[in-house]
Amino acid sequence: MALLQVNYYSQTLGMDRVMNVILPELSDHNPSWTAADLQDIPVLYLLHGMSGDQAVWTRRTSIERLVRQTPIAIVMPSTDLAWYTNTQYGMNYFDALVDELPKKIATLFPQISKKRDKNFIAGLSMGGYGAFKMAFSNQQFSYAASLSGALIGDPNFPGRDAWQNDAYWQGIFGNLTKFPGSENDIIKLAQQQSFRKQPLPKLYAWIGEQDFLFENNQQTISQIKALGYDVTFETSPGEHDWYYWDKKIERILEWLPINYKKEKRLS
């Protein structure tokens, strides 16, 4: 597998950006692969949480090692602290990621599939929110996964005051009293997608039973299931911590329709 740092210019944000990409390549680690195996390859967009960036998944988990025998690309972008959202201060991070980034990927990596059934998205904490939000907002992704996701549909979501003050949240989402039913309310977005009678993404969510977002996940997933989504919801002992996310990212790989191959002992 190749691990690439890609510096590119975002016309939407008007600034240089960075993404990390894990890309399958022909090598003696996978002697059975052919050039044909590395065309139209599936892709998983992997989103970071509030304290992370485009490099955090490779620094704190085994993602590169886990996929080195599975022909799948991993794209890891950054939203800074903007919650995968078009902010109130004029920085359209959501548009940059959901509209502009896939076009950039298609240009830079033509071997990565543009087909919906081969495009997946996942994230942790803030990135879990972003993954569901992006999957509900368009038809690009056929599978979406959340690990310890901040699946917010209420301005008084758990951890709000501990993470940042009201000025920060208003800069991201605007008037918090108007958050329910807005373009940032993932329950509202899920409703709108289901009402349009479009193909719905399959969803996976895991939350640790000691996580401060546990009740939030239970409530939100129940509402999403009631809308007709195919949701795999799993819980187990665990906290809001990389120790668990490192383990659960492999569970996501097993859940995706990619013929995931567990690692053999390779030098």
TrEMBL record:
Superkingdom, taxonomy of origin: Bacteria
One Pfam short name: Esterase
Gene Ontology molecular function: any one: acyltransferase activity, transferring groups other than amino-acyl groups
Protein name: Esterase family protein
Source organism per UniProt: Leuconostoc gasicomitatum
